[in-house]
Amino acid sequence: MKKNGTRARRSQCCATMLILALAHVVAHAGDLAPGSELGGAEFGGSSRGSVAQISQTGERNEAAISQQGAFHSGQIVQLGNGNEVSTVQRGDANQFVLSQSGSGNELALTQAGRANQAFIAQGGDGNHAIVEQRGNSNTVNLQQGALSPNLTVQQIGNGIAARVIQY
């Protein structure tokens, strides 16, 4: 029974990440917090041929995407309250798809080099993750659940693959 439950959770997370990766949403950002505060999402950097998308549902969510180089792609989806994401892409052709559901989750992603990929899903409350990719053609697939609040992944080199599932 435990194997089937784990497989179902993996399938659900993979399906969610696939849907996020295939979604065709015009780049937008919003802050749904009450009051006049602005700045829930920001885009920055100087990048040629790159795409950045942020979708937020909830209150007090913050997301930042900085892209320097060419042909990067980044997508952030936040559902819940008080979630934070900060991403930096340097080099060329790096990509990520990040999703957070729940409250109080924090994620920092740095990609430096060429053709690095990060697929990250955080679910639950109070998760903290730091992911660093330096080099070329590195891949990380991270699924972080409610019972594993802290995680750091560093990929320094070329062609490194990591799959981390914490529940």
Mean of pLDDT: 81
What separation lies between the terminal Cα atoms? 16 Å
Class based on secondary structure composition and strand pairing: mainly beta
Strand content: over 45%
The residue fraction in helices comes out at: 10-25%
Calculate Rg over CA atoms.
15 Å
- SSE order, one letter for each helix or strand: HEEEEEEEEEEEEE
- Work out the count of structural domains: 1
Enumerate the spans where pLDDT stays under 50 for 5 or more consecutive residues. Answer: 13-39
Number of helices: 1
Largest sheet: 7 strands, parallel
Description:
The radius of gyration is 15 Å and the shape is globular. The strands form two sheets. Strands 1, 2, 4, 6, 8, 10 and 12 form a seven-stranded parallel beta sheet that branches. A six-stranded parallel beta sheet has the order 3-5-7-9-11-13, covered by helices on one side. The two termini are 16 Å apart. It is built from one helix and 13 strands, in the order H-E-E-E-E-E-E-E-E-E-E-E-E-E. Mean pLDDT is 81; it is low at 13-39. It has one domain. The longest helix is centred in the first third of the chain and has 21 residues, at 2-22. The protein is mainly beta and 167 residues long. Helices cover 13% and strands 57% of the residues.
